[in-house]
């Protein structure tokens, strides 16, 4: 969690991808809403991102392939991002989760041009 804490320094809004939203202290939002909210926050706080984008104003956080985000890591995020899936197979692999998120981010960007 220490590395993630350092990585999130300066971020004004972050979401953590998880299939386990129960017990999360903040809002648990569907991926489409998270992507739109992150885009909105990125545009509103564009001035605080570093020129090379090494310190962006917002972050989407994904965990390791095997176990996802740990509770301590998810607790560092402002919201939990869930991707609706069949409850029998609620946990997606990392590539699938990132692909779905980036698709929703792109759709939000096109909608709010």
TrEMBL record:
A GO term for molecular function: RNA binding
Signal peptide annotation: none
Organism per entry: Odontella aurita
Gene Ontology terms: biological process: tRNA nucleoside ribose methylation
A Pfam family per the record: SpoU_methylase
Protein name: tRNA/rRNA methyltransferase SpoU type domain-containing protein
Organism domain of life: Eukaryota
CC terms in the record's Gene Ontology section: cytosol
InterPro entries for the chain: Alpha/beta_knot_MTases (IPR029028), RNA_MeTrfase_TrmJ/LasT (IPR004384), SpoU_MeTrfase (IPR001537), tRNA_m1G_MTases_N (IPR029026)
Membrane as UniProt keyword: no
Family: Belongs to the class IV-like SAM-binding methyltransferase superfamily. RNA methyltransferase TrmH family.
Gene3D superfamilies: 3.40.1280.10
Keyword line: Methyltransferase, S-adenosyl-L-methionine, Transferase
Residue ranges occupied by any tRNA/rRNA methyltransferase SpoU type domain in the UniProt entry: 51-103
